[in-house]
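Project standup — Tuesday

K.O.: blocked on the structure for the chain from last sprint. Re-posting the sequence here as requested.
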Amino acid sequence: MSDGWLVGEKTGNNRILDQVDADKADEIMDAIENGEVEKILSRVDEAGNVTIKQLDSAGNVIGKWP
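H.V.: unblocked you, prediction finished:
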């Protein structure tokens, strides 16, 4: 879930635009560029325990969230 993956820098497949209209996609992409978007990864294990981690702009886990 890197920034490039979201906006299709390498693939040409803009995943944000696939989900929302062009105006909202522009708003989200501007927020990403301005560092206003916080990306998190949630995982639920077999016992139902939830682990939430924060991701950096490259999609790497950088720590627990919040």
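K.O.: great, moving the ticket to review. Helices lie at 3-7, 22-33. The two ends are 18 Å apart (CA to CA).
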